[in-house]
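User: Sorry, folds how?
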Amino acid sequence: MLIRLTQDLKNGFAPWKEMLHANGDKLKEHGMTCIFAGTEKDNDNKLTVIINFATQEGMMAFKNDVELTKRRIEAGAMVETTVMTPMTAEAVTNFSG
């Protein structure tokens, strides 16, 4: 299940990226694979993440993980701005022609 997550950051991408790498165990616990994460070229505080969740239950566990949410906030994530959008199952990834 592919999800596009958008979110505003307070401290730019670097602290958020460090938090992501430090929480690999949480990604595994929730069946998450980060396909892409980055900010807009001209705004280091506008984050887009493409996540592949193994299950719907994993996605819900991520959304409701209080400990991980606290870590995200500490890294500068403005969680009140988070929008998670399900993407089509017919997606194309890593195609180079």
The two ends are 24 Å apart (CA to CA). The mean pLDDT is 96. The helical segments are 13-22, 24-29, 56-63, 66-74. The chain has four helices and four strands.
